[in-house]
């Protein structure tokens, strides 16, 4: 079984490079058109994938600050996922919704005016 390991590793690298090349945008392929890269990967299973992984694609690295924010279409938004309790935009939206809900509430004549629902077993 161990003698098949290099073949399996080579097959894995070829499949990975082929899928990576096929899903890459046309403008991100460097030096050669995408179709040529795909042909190189398929026809030269050792050199093609290595060439693609080393020199075939524009790799976008994150800046030292850690946020991806290079795009310009985000409008000042964060490009990485932030937990809801740490996201100021979400908290502001949640506060606005709660304020709107509070404005629409009235006491509704639920009984004795203590704000509790009559007949609720938890309130007795």
What do you see in this structure?
- The chain is mainly α and 124 residues long.
- The protein is 45% helix and 0% strand.
- It has helices spanning 5-23, 34-43, 47-56, 88-104.
- It is elongated.
- It starts with a helix and ends in a 20-residue tail after the last helix.
- Mean pLDDT is 76; it is low at 62-75.
Brief sketch in words of this structure:
The protein has 124 residues and is mostly helical. It has helices at residues 5-23, 34-43, 47-56, 88-104.
Which tags fit this structure?
124 residues, mainly alpha, 45% helix
Describe the largest sheet: none
Distance between the termini: 72 Å
Average pLDDT reading: 76
Number of strands: 0
How would you classify the helix and strand content by structural class? mainly alpha
* Rg (CA only): 29 Å
Helix proportion: 40-55%
Uncertain residue ranges: 62-75
Written as H for each helix and E for each strand, in order along the chain, the element string is: HHHH
In terms of DSSP E residues, the strand content is: under 5%
What is the number of helices? 4
Helix and strand topology:
Layout: H1 5-23, H2 34-43, H3 47-56, H4 88-104
Helix pairs in contact: 1-2, 1-3, 2-3
